[in-house]
Amino acid sequence: MDRFPAHKTTSSPVSLHRLHRHRRRRFGDDRGSAVELAAVMGGVLALFALLLVFGMRWLAVQAADAAAQRALETAQSTGGTDTAAVQVAAGIARSSQAITDVATTVHRNTATVTVDVTVTALLGGSVTRSATGPAARFIPQRQAP
Questions:
Q1: Consecutive 10-residue runs of the chain (145 residues): their mean pLDDT?
Q2: Is 18 within a domain?
Q3: Residue 84's Cα: distance from chain center in Å?
């Protein structure tokens, strides 16, 4: 049985109300409220903020790791000084422009060199990375008489 036959064209307020009620029951009441919109948008914005913070953290980790590795190479090289290693680390870490502060320390002993680089990201949070390697020494060969 057809509920709304084609030959019947009644436009009384009662029949329009029935038609509207029938559509609402058939398709669901899809009239969203402002509260639902605010909840969904709040969740989307929170997810976006979380993604931004983790992205900045990842960038800080990458900058600290690259700076520590390159500063170690500089400190290990023959004639490499601690000052040169600190300058190299600061230059590499700040090249991402998302790093606000860089602190570098170089520790040496007779066999190894250790470089610690601490960076602070634009959105806060510090990351420390360390690199250790053997100290390079130049030992000239003795000349035969």
A1: 56 61 57 82 94 92 95 90 94 90 93 94 90 84 74
A2: no
A3: 29
